[in-house]
Amino acid sequence: MKFQSVTGTKDLLPSESFLWQRIENVARSVFERFGYAEIRTPVFEDTNLFLRGIGETTDIVGKEMYTFKPSPDSDESLTLRPEMTASVMRAYLQHGLGGQFPVVKVYYIAELFRKERPQKGRYRQFWQLGAECIGSALPESDAEMIAMMMMIYDELGVTNATLKLNSLGDAETRTRYRAALRDYLRPHYERLDAVSKERFEKNPLRILDSKNPDLQEIIAGAPRILDYLDEESNAHFEAVRTYLDELGIAYSIDHRLVRGLDYYSRTAFELVSADLGAQDALGGGGRYDGLAEQLGSPKPIPAVGFASGIERLWLAMERANLLRNIPQKKPDVMLVAQSTKAQTWIMKTANEWRRKGLVVEVDLLRRSLKAQMREANRLGAKFAVIAGESELQTRKFQLKNLRSSEQTEVEEERLFDAIKAQVVESL
Ligand code: HAM
Prior knowledge:
The chain is an alpha+beta fold.
């Protein structure tokens, strides 16, 4: 029987993992420059965390969660995390992090699970890199979050993307706006599709999200939430916009941007790429000042965050030819054995040099000299050292520079330094 990976999941193969690591490393470096520390939470949580946190009327909770019982007769219900924000807030509250630091700034690189219909850029297990800033209600933290997200894309070279911005106001704004939106949509009700009819009652804001071409005209004429903002949210939004302008971060206001998770309030943003097709959202986020209370906090705790899909980032980089320029770490030296005795010398020397920091390859198939040299070239090794009986006797070795084909005889005690010096020089 032949097994295949399950639909909607992906293997990351050794030939591409260095590219993935590059994305992670750039993200980590940016997060750290903004003073964010990593958080890791469990892959599964109490199902109620997501019901309460993300919202029962959302697509994620309604139909996309992988939910299971730990044992058939258990009352407990567990769910593979479909996103990180609820888990991070759960950890923040559980460990009283707010009592230790007035503002908690964390980042994550995590795998998530959503039972979606798989297609290009949409998987059932996928990765996000993201961050959450908990404890500040001020527009500085929104602007900083967006700046941090944009810096990651910028440093990875992804520039063909548009930042969309909107504000969802406070809870009252949304109540007023929901009513206005329903009033507007009511005369068009019969023209709505089945999904939108369902949303009409439960969550009419999501109708604005619809990609159904037949509904675009109706949606274009809908009232705009920014016209319903409460005074404070309006001032907050203006301040975020001023900061973004000052930071030189371009954006466009998108009145239809409502995001698919229920916890958002005030600022909402999304980065979309024209290179991605139907699943065009590279990343998104926003402010979620009500989530902590939803999860049982006795007082509101303001917070803002974002998350980016790593597979989509990868796709965007691939389309823009950016993956080609990422250098792969190559061996510094391949030690080539010509006899059994030399094999032992090689094993010992390789171990010593690796301990001292060189990347050293050794043939594990006892191949011929010619085949080993071919392998050294295939791997892109910078040097080869050939060890045979005579070299072991004279303690002098042929050091071959595989880039220039230059060959020199070097005494055993000087070999490491000779290679090290030239490896450093060629960096
Ligand atoms: P989200 O918009 O659901 O937000 O997901 C963020 C990003 O994850 C998307 O823009 C997309 O790039 C990627 N993504 C989502 N679903 C999939 C999928 N099935 N396959 C591949 N990539 C996917 C959140 O998850 C929020 N927690 C973001 C946030 C953080 N808000 C505040 N803090």
